[in-house]
Amino acid sequence: MRIVAGTWRGRTLIAPPGRATRPTADRVRQALFDMLLHAPWGGREVVEGVHVLDAFAGTGALGLEALSRGAAQASFMEPDRSTLVALQVNIAACRAGDRATILVADATRPPGAIVACGLVFLDPPYGQGLVPRALAALRGAGWLAAGALIVAETGVAETFEECTVPLAVRDHGAARLTVWRSA
Question: Model-level pTM?
């Protein structure tokens, strides 16, 4: 696993041992960021200079990819102590400590927001219905900026009603990316 583009292009990221995390594949991240940057509703301003939330951070690959491509700051939520070690190593390897905040927190029970985020990544374990729960909790805690772009990675069979009018839905193997704007 590596950073696909930007300042840290090619930088290798580590994942914790075992199956506790399921990092987003390089090709899926590439497709996602291509869509964010080149879709009619996207553009460089979707990422550059924006505060990003990587909920269910795991390795931090989504948030670090955004930082590599010009995001101003990223907050990473991860409750698993062993996964936090890999996240910390990856942030240090990218020398992103001054632009990254790690929160030992569950996205379904988040702390109050540091800042409302304009780009939010939700990549929970598949098949557990966590996207709706996390969205409600993050909204209630002030993490979603008005009009924030939300990207959810779920299993292809998962559905949720929070996204009635998606900007994009793309399947990549077992993964489905759904993108929409918060109300």
Answer: 0.93
